[in-house]
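Progress report, Aim 2. The chain analyzed during this reporting quarter is listed below.
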Amino acid sequence: MPTIIEVAALAGVSTATVSRVLSRPEQVSEETRRRVLEVVRESGYAPNVAARSLRTLRAAKILLTVPDISNAFFASVIRGAEEAARDAGYSVVVGDTRHDPDVEDQYADMLSRREVDGLIFLGHRLPDRLAPLLARKGAAAPIVNGCEYSPDLGVPSVHIDNAAASADAIDHLIALGHRTIGVVTGPEISPISRDRLAGAIHAATRAGLRDSLHIRVGDYSAGPAVDQTRDLIAQDVTAIFCFSDEMAMGALSAIGDAGLSCPNDVSVIGFDDLPLARYFQPPLTTIAQPKAMIGRRTVELLVDILRGVDSPSRQVTLDHELIVRSSTAPPATRRG
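Predicted structure tokens for the chain:
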């Protein structure tokens, strides 16, 4: 294995420059960076991460926690985060908290013990163990939230405008002619669920249809959405807006079980635009979130904090998009 001294000699730079290329590439000119990385690739040089961590008190790792790793939405967020972290010289440790505050605290202890340099959490709750760190360091605390923005968290965040996105979904259904609309929300404790519900109610109220909005509470998963959809069908809704694509999948199943079809009897719209949404039967109309970009931007915000770079924005709102497919159509006369 070549040494950093040998790499520096081959590239015609100092060992400090080689170190900066590998740990803080933005501080090195593009030409120098290219030359050093070419030598690194050709020589097979690999830095001693353990030694570097002891020397710099830097673990070169970012902890990213998700509330439910089985949820397909998070896979794309994690991928975007890993790509950005790799570009910045970090690796990503992923933790599944399973909505459990005790597990969240266990992972948070990794930051307190400096086993990781920073934390990105994709849930709605800041681990209790990190409250003293946040109070002490404020904006310099290496903590960033993704997706579940709430001003009460007091940390940088990357998210979409969930209220506006939800309003777009309801506006779409109203424009098609639907007047009795069901809404299957996420948990009431979730900030994004509350924001999406506020947006749906605002759009319905604006159209004079607030009293025709039938609201049921789900948990972002397909199973409970089946029961909620059965109840909504009994209310003769002609369209259902689900706060996740997984719940929309449950809604489609319940519609079929009731001997009805989508969109002929009941239109369905989801949220997230999961990769499989276009392959649902029928293909699902949904709100697309820039999932990979959420992951990438959370890492970029965190790396700015770790490097002491002033960020122009600590709250990043990304664009959403209404993706219209075959699961929504004008209402038809339902069978009796």
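The radius of gyration is 24 Å. Residues 53-57 have pLDDT under 50 and may be disordered. These observations will guide the mutagenesis work planned for the next reporting period.
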